Fold this protein.
Amino acid sequence: MRSIPLTQSKSFNSFRWALICTGLLLGFTQAQSANPTIKSRDLPSSLYNYWVKQKPDMGNLGHCAVAFDSSTDENKMAYGCSVFIKMSAQGERKAMQYCETMRADHQVKAPCQLVVE
């Protein structure tokens, strides 16, 4: 009787595929941002127009963050965008930092949120 090495058995291959799929799923779930987000359609018109203006320069990795206490008073709005960034996570951090700085300057009480489509 000939023995089959463990690496060639069907049960080992099934286990290997299950492990790969689990790793991929975990990787996708961790790729989501830990920062709060807001949909672009929910932005006040002046912030939406700013976001649309910045969007072409952001590419796939850039991000914008906004905070606003009023949808009409621009003195109660804060925003920050990161453009020409090499890593998406870096873009998120920079956008949040820029927003937090402007938020403190304008004394906006609402938290900064990343803009998503």
